[in-house]
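## tool: complex_structure
## caller: assistant
## args:
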Amino acid sequence: MTAPPRWIALPLAAVLLVCGVIGVQLANGGGTYEPLRPADPCAERTATSRADGIDGLTERLVLLGVNDAACRLGVTREALTLELAQSGARTDAEIDALRAGLLSAVRQMKKDGSLPPASDLVDEALDSANLNGLLERAIRLVPDSVINRALRTDDVLERAIEDLDLRALLANLDDQDDLERQVEAAVTEAVKESLLARLRNLL
Amino acid sequence: MRRAVTPLLAVTVAMVLADSAVVTLALPDILRNLDASVGQVAWVLIAYNLVLGMAAVPAAAAFSRVQPRVFSAVGVAVFAGASAWCALADSIEVLIVARCVQAVGGALALIGCLEQLVEVRGERRGIATWVTAGVVGTAAGPVAGGLLTQAISWQAIFVVQVPFALLAVPAALSVASAPPRASDRHRPAVRANVTLALMSAALTAALFLLVLLLVEGWGRSPATAAVTVSVVPLAALGARPLVRLLRPPPDVEVAVGCFLVAGGLVGLAVPPSAHLVWTIAPQALVGLGLGLTVDRLTSQAMEMRLPRARHAGWTISARHVGVVLGLAVLTPVFTADLRDAEQPAQEAITSLVLDSPLQPEDKIAVAQALGDALSDQQGQVPDLHSAFATLDVAPQDRPATDRLERDLDAQLERAATWAFRDSFLIGAGIALLALLSSIRLRRRTA
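## result:
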């Protein structure tokens, strides 16, 4: 039996080297090194915010609402966000999905207990509301426990969302200051009016 | 002078072949400085290879009718003059025309230098010197171009060639020889040249795409990219000792080289991250494969075939037509893939911004700055740093925005890597085609 020629080591070494290099690359995630894939918008998602009060609540509502709207429209949350960031007219389907999404977000937050009590929102709402001084002072004197017994945050928010002009809101996304003003004013106004309506009845 | 003839002619051969890819890392600078489009800039690379590939065979045919030393000297002088013209070009059109003239001079110089080297060093050593100089030039081109662009400017790439080429003119004139006899004709080595063309296309995929990925996709500087891709020529140098040790048959050597290049390209297609270290082993495979194939195939195509210049013309043509073929096949693929990668990249960026631990007003500010940056840089991998540099956030939120910037850059690196994957894999497929053609060559000659 004759010994194999010395050169046979060359193709063998080449096969080992190629398999070794590709194997190490793949074993360390080489086959899946790609951009982050958007999560399924129909899967339940939690939302957090670094902001307090109405700002934080608004952010969490918007994050959950857009996710739910994306699920209703059959697109990813990211694709819907990018679409809404473009200028141009919104379709009725988008507006309806967003409103339904925001309402669903309120229900989800109520269910997981992350909605703040109504009394947490009153001071902030009153700060930005241009009310008669006497009325404002009277409202501030109402104990938190009385407000919370009389008002349910989810009811207030649902009324606010129903009244929001989403089409006008989405038409002004380019100007950050204006957008903040609109969101804050819309939510504050809705919260304020709901609270005032109930508080007037209380008083 | 006699002692300097061989190095000067070898350097000229290396420079002419290095010019095939020397501008790869300088293309972004040329694009900016000459106010050109991406398509025009690509022609700086394509024009040279196309003209060199087309001019080599007619140049070789003309060679038998002229004094070799005059032929070589004229070729080197034209190459030197056109290199200076490239450096002085003030528009992309002028640069492309100058590159075409440079390629014509380069074709004459390559044919002429081969005969001069054979005259000075004898048949076997002369051809070996010519072939080795070509391999070193091909592999070192992008490295040299990247370092010069980073250290000085893109014009420096062409300026540094001029003195070497000018010194090579008297060197070429000093070698007296008679025009080669037109008899003893052999048929061109078609299969060796086809394999060489396919390997050139695959190697273009390796070097051209890798430097683009490093600079445009991963945002590394031309100098960093140049140092990184120097692994290829260094590994190519390791091929000769390996061959001397194991003494494989030439066809086995070529087949193994093709397989290594294919494996290296697959490795480059699947890096686990954008860390440069993941490119080293695949590049070493490519370099080793280059060292095993290009000079062996060139020798196979020329060995014992006369007239020598004519066969040299065919090999030069095969190599550069292969480069153009590689660019023609791969450029539309990776540009389309880069375009397709925009959406997943944007969605990944949107996802990270939406979920970032920032104040709502900072999130909106980041989103708007990113939107502006992305729309300003359409058609290329965007640099998001400008969006973050102008951001006005509270000092306590700066660490979170810095982290977000790093995460977004990582997503862009992932998207760019993903976009280059198909092109690297196509390059690997071309290398495997070269392997198949070399196996058929073996059967035919067995």
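## assistant note: Chain B touches chain A through 50 residues (CB under 8 Å). The first helix of chain B runs from residue 2 to 18. Handing back to user.
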